[in-house]
Amino acid sequence: MRTALVALSCIAAGVFLAPPAHSQGPTMDALWPSEDGRSWSYDQHYESFDANPQVIANQVRIFFDGTTVAPNGIEAQYLREQLIGGDAPATALAAVLPDPLLRRLWVARPDLREKILHAVEDSPCPEQTPSYSYALLLGGEFAYRKTADEIAAWRCNLADRRAWRWLVSDLTIGNTFTLQLIPDLASNVLLHGTIAAIEPATVPAGRFDDCVRVEYVIDYGLNECTDASGNTLGTARWETRGYVKYAPHTGPVQSNEEFLIAEATGTCVTPEDIGRAMSRTSLKLNSPTVPVRPTTWGRIKAAYR
After folding, report:
1. Where are the domains of the chain?
2. Contact (CB, 8 A) for 224 and 235
């Protein structure tokens, strides 16, 4: 009787003692389906704002194409990238350094240029990166591996080393992760990721709700600036900043990134250039992912020899 009276009193007061609703967010596995043959097509837009400005617009596709083996016997999937439409011009630097990471590093760290050229000539990784690829945060030609803890890419020429990390299993908003990049070239080039938000994304392929936005920062390390005589002028530190939105049961649907000088001392650069984007790149999904291949692939792809 007392319980009934309490319930009636709550209703009369406009208070409903219903149990709280528990909504479960998307899982890491659902954010990037990885069946062999699954494909994503994007509109790619690249702009540079240096002394020789350039605008490049085309369509690229990334897709899973069989399996591969990274050094030390790490089994992975082959995530390929292809040009599928539009022009495919390459900047002069892209023709020499197809890998977008090495192109950014070339600008940010002049002290590493000899090492970069040696790496490209001796053991490039990835081996097949196309010169029309400008997106650093989202791309192909990787040994892709999904585990219970992360979705990452593995190096093709260095044992037990990740080339990249896209996602981690802990999707709590504010969770962060860090990965040291290219330790064979430098010790202070770092990738920082943050689970930033759950929000919609509207792209040419349509509207996607409940996307997980992961923000990325690549810190290229501090570099000393010198003049023609070798005198130190100051220091500069470059970054790539951007994000990728992952839609549940669809995969990555959008990415945006900027390459900029994050901080500087001395007379390395003019104050107006600090924080100003030197280039921007975006990818927007322009068609739904294709169905999984009806047949299995038994052969091993020789993508990372």
Report:
1. 28-287
2. yes
